[in-house]
# Entry
Amino acid sequence: MDEELHGKAAYNQPVEAAAQSAPTPSRSSEDEESLVREGQILGMDLMRPRAVLLIDAANYILSASAADTEYDEEYAWRRAQRVIASVVGFFSLPNDTICAYIGDGEIAVLKASGTRDLASWTRSANEKDQANRSPSAPSSSASARNRLTILPVESAATEGATTPEAIYCASWADLGALKRASAALLKRLRHDTGAPVSIGVGRYHPGIRALTASYQDARAALSLGRRFHGQNRVHCLDALGVAAFVGVADERTKIDLAIHLLSPLDHEVELLDTLDVFFAENCSPSTTASRLNIHRNTLGYRLDKITALTGLDPRHFDDAVQIRIALTLRALHTSRTPAYLDPPERATF
# Structure
């Protein structure tokens, strides 16, 4: 284990390059090929579909040694190696994880994230969901979303995502499984270190050049998550609520998040129209039902269905803000016209 640990920790240069700088537009294809070759020399498969996990173990790695009350770089390095050993031992599969200590008490993990790599985490969730509900009971929003997205990622990840639809599916697919794997890893790390630990989860983005996008996702999720939700948690953009829309600077990421949150409603035109009118009527059930010419009970049923599909309840303030922002962002990039506009106003020119 010590030899494997040393190798995983010492080979941090290509890992940092892949996660932080390789995928920038200024990088040439020659640079990318060089990075792949360097990784192969060091026994790293950088061509395998991967997502970035960013582990904050600063409370353990940067703590003073027993013999000295001041920060000791060598002591911190040894502790970082122990964290890496826990990560590698937890996932255990060959080439499943590539780890590096990147300083400031943080470990970057390039986690294999194809459907097959996450099969056990997806399977366990589906089995648990199946056991906890009757055949006639509606699916939970989380499990339903996982089942909807488990299939596209395999073709997108292994065959190469080239269309916008494939890239979108690959970006968010199996995210639930990756978060469950991270939650189990967090439990292991807290046990092994005896200190507070937090993990930021990045989405999978196709190609080596997109690893930086996954790193940026993980970095934003970790930073915002620690600030708003505290330590000892797994943080991911789709679970940060309004903070993700406010705290993330990249416009494309916010649009992708909006599309992801509303994706369960893609084929539910009636529910989308209901949301448009509900917000136009200041979330008033009475005036919304009247405007839609439906009974209030029918409106309640529709709102319940929206909650079941998306995991967000438009009758709750924070959830309503998320949905409203998501609808607005998505409307800016689609041809759909809000239902609350009168027919003459909805006409296109």
About this structure: Residues 1-11, 22-27, 133-167, 343-349 have pLDDT under 50 and may be disordered.
